């Protein structure tokens, strides 16, 4: 309620100031142009005649910018799909999904995600944001910000991904997009979009809407053994335990809307942004466990079916954000005020029913039913004030402040269901479903740590100096971030239920771009950044058997991780717009949050302990990044475009078991492709090939190695005049597969002694996806 009141006051103030400032402003015409370039005609977005390139930015910061002409021909459905084609971004998602980006291969929480330059809340406990929630059709450009600036919040150890949505000064006219996607199981999903931009009153308005059908059918298989091949080379025949076959289908619809209204009256500019995304999704899993590596028969004792499991999750998510920005040039410089409000809501209802047939002779099969209800509400209200003062002809001084009030409410509740029937030994797992045996659920009760509220208040101040001396552009500044956190957990004793913490961090930064020639320049930066603790680590609850057989106790007093790092790169312009670049980066991370043994005995008794997250670790991350975007005009092929990137990634962390990489960091990722345009025929085709290296994760009681197959996409395009384009795109043409190897242990001691509880091989595969998309400008 407080945030809502502040939002209304802030927007009212902005509206009042803007109405006075623009009272005498003339009506905008269709040919109005801003200082950063002319307005794009809708037909230029619909009909892309030529080769798309990565943009060459002129700001001091190391920023790679990619417009829609770089992505659109491969018809990405979401912002995550678009990010598969930029340097150093990996995903540890399921096949056919690109949700939580891992910049430089680091876990998603190390990457700052911005929409129109502002943070937005999401569902994940590690503060990451799922990029598959932003339809690609709403995107104007994607920016990779390799290093930090005092202008932005410092939550960017790996870097920042900024998604710029279209606005009214970027589009004149409108277009519709319509098509469909066909999946490997012959499911057809729609894809519809509408975008319009034009002059309205004294400013320009843009409106966009999108409906996207989502479908992801996967087949999974797991083979489980009692030991690892390290200790038993004959594990496949001697120590086989069970096999699990699973179908996993994720089906739903995404609805999204965005709009901007902007008035540019010379010295005064007012802009109002808003976007809304709603997801209705159902995830359906059906799993069968067998006691044979290949056979498929009925329940034991006459067959080899050990269990039959049905899991259904119904997910309803909403994301919306609104912000207004007023900028005024006056005698003392330029002042800008931005007021924003963002909210995320998730309602997830998951049921799981399982029949177990691996029972003693004469006993009836065992039935278990469970309901988990998860409710998350995360909202942020923010105000940013910035003032810019010229310092002569070549420099300017910028200072300002930032305020954010964040509240996150999490509720996780569970209930059990009784058996409402008898499974029997004549069970046919392909004709019957465990759901038919379920009785009514009991009362929902909060899980340990599953009912809490987290409030964060941030007060930041920043200052920087920018210089532009022709061939040298530079920036140097400092930001101070102070955060106060209060955590209230309603599942623990009252005397420890509410706890608070506060911390302040000084974050200096500097960057430059130096032009060696008209075509060559060096780019460098150094900055201190941070990563705030994930939400599930700061609640004061004890989660039993969360770390193998041991318990996990939250720690409200932990502080952020911090890192010093640098980037140094070289960039060469090829022809009129082509670019080739190489970059070296390094980060030294301090105060890593690692689980530490408190010495207290765990809930399972002797041999188990209570672990707690603490700031006790250090690490370093480094790598080399290469990117290319050019046509082949220098060899007489101006209508042939090449693009690609490759990153070699590495890191070092020392934990209780020795040295390892940061968890789930791929060793490399690369993507190469081409586009061949035929201007005479109004046609084009192209292909892109992507591969990321294996990733390893080690936590207490579990080690996982993940590998992915390659991804191949091909498009064919036909243009009709200046207003209509149709494309056919094939994705995942190599039947992408994800494979995971699990080493599982009961506790840390067993893990260090290599005394395995279970060894598991899991594979997941999905088939190709074909889509036909048409756009028409009007």
UniProtKB/TrEMBL annotation:
Pfam families: Plug, TonB_dep_Rec_b-barrel. Residues 1-23 form the signal peptide. Gene3D superfamilies: TonB-dependent receptor, beta-barrel domain (2.40.170.20), TonB-dependent receptor, plug domain (2.170.130.10). Residues 339-733 form the TonB-dependent receptor-like beta-barrel domain. InterPro entries: Beta-barrel_TonB, Beta-barrel_TonB_sf, Plug_dom, Plug_dom_sf. Residues 210-256 are annotated as: Disordered. Keywords: Cell outer membrane, Membrane, Receptor, Signal, TonB box. It comes from Sphingobium psychrophilum. Residues 243-254 have a biased composition (Basic and acidic residues). This is TonB-dependent receptor.
């Amino acid at each position: 309620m407080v945030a809502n009141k502040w939002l209304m006051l802030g927007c009212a103030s902005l509206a009042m100031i803007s109405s006075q400032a623009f009272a005498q402003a003339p009506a905008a015409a269709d040919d109005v142009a801003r200082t950063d370039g002319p307005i794009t005609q809708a037909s230029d977005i619909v009909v892309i005649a030529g080769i798309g390139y990565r943009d060459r930015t002129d700001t001091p910061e190391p920023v790679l910018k990619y417009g829609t002409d770089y992505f659109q021909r491969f018809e990405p459905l979401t912002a995550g799909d678009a990010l598969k084609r930029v340097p150093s971004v990996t995903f540890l998602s399921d096949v056919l999904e690109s949700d939580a980006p891992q910049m430089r291969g680091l876990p998603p929480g190390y990457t700052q995600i911005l929409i129109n330059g502002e943070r937005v809340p999401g569902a994940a406990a590690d503060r990451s944001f799922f990029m598959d929630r932003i339809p690609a059709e709403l995107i104007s450009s994607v920016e990779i910000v390799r290093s930090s600036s005092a202008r932005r919040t410092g939550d960017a150890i790996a870097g920042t991904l900024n998604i710029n949505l279209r606005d009214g000064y970027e589009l004149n006219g409108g277009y519709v997009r319509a098509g469909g996607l066909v999946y490997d199981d012959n499911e057809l999903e729609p894809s519809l979009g509408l975008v319009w931009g034009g002059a309205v009153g004294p400013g320009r308005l843009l409106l966009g809407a999108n409906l996207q059908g989502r479908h992801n059918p996967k087949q999974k298989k797991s083979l489980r053994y009692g030991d690892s091949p390290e200790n038993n080379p004959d594990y496949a025949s001697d120590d086989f335990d069970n096999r699990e076959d699973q179908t996993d289908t994720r089906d739903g619809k995404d609805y999204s809307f965005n709009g901007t209204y902007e008035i540019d009256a010379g010295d005064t500019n007012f802009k109002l942004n808003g976007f809304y995304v709603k997801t209705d999704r159902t995830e359906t899993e059906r799993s069968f466990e067998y006691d044979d590596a290949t056979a498929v028969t009925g329940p034991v004792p006459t067959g080899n079916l050990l269990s039959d499991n049905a899991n259904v999750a119904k997910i309803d998510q909403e994301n919306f954000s609104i912000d207004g920005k007023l900028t005024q040039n006056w005698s003392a410089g330029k002042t800008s005020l931005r007021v924003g409000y963002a909210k995320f809501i998730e309602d997830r209802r998951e049921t799981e029913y399982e029949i177990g047939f691996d029972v003693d002779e004469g006993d009836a099969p065992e039935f278990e039913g469970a309901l988990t209800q998860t409710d998350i509400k995360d909202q942020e209200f923010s105000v940013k004030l910035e003032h810019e003062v010229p310092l002569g002809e070549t420099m300017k001084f910028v200072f300002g402040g930032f305020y954010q009030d964040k509240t996150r409410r999490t509720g996780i509740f569970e209930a059990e269901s009784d058996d409402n029937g008898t499974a029997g030994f004549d069970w046919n797992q392909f004709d019957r479903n465990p759901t038919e045996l379920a009785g009514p659920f009991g009362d929902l009760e909060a899980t340990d740590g599953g009912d809490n509220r987290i409030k964060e208040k941030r007060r930041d101040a920043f200052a920087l100096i920018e210089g532009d001396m022709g061939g040298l552009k530079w920036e140097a500044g400092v930001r101070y971030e102070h955060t106060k956190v209060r955590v209230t957990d309603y599942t623990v004793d009252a005397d420890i239920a509410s706890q608070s913490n506060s911390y302040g961090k000084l974050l200096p930064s500097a960057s430059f771009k130096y032009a060696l020639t008209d075509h060559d320049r060096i780019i460098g930066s150094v900055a201190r950044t941070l990563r705030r603790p994930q939400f599930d680590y700061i609640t004061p609850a004890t989660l039993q058997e969360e770390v193998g057989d041991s318990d996990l106790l939250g720690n409200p007093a932990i502080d952020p991780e911090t890192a010093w790092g640098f980037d140094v790169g070289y960039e060469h312009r090829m022809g009129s717009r082509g670019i080739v670049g190489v970059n070296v980066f390094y980060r030294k991370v301090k105060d890593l949050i690692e689980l530490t043994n408190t010495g207290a005995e765990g809930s399972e008794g002797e041999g188990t302990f209570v672990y707690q997250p603490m700031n006790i670790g250090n690490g370093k991350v480094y790598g080399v990044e290469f990117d290319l975007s050019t046509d082949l005009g220098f060899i007489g092929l101006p209508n042939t475009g090449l693009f690609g990137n490759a990153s070699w990634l590495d890191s070092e962390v020392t934990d209780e078991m020795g040295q390892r990489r940061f968890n789930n960091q791929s060793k490399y990722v690369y993507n190469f492709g081409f586009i061949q345009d035929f201007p005479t025929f109004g046609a084009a085709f192209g292909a892109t090939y992507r591969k990321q290296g294996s990733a390893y994760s080690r936590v207490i009681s579990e080690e996982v190695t993940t590998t992915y197959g390659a991804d191949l996409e091909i498009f064919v395009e036909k243009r009709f005049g200046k207003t209509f384009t149709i494309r056919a795109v094939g994705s995942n043409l190599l039947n992408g597969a994800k494979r995971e190897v699990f080493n599982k242990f009961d506790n840390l001691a067993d893990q260090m002694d290599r005394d395995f509880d279970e060894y598991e091989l899991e594979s997941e595969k999905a088939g190709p996806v074909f889509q036909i998309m048409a756009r028409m400008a009007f």
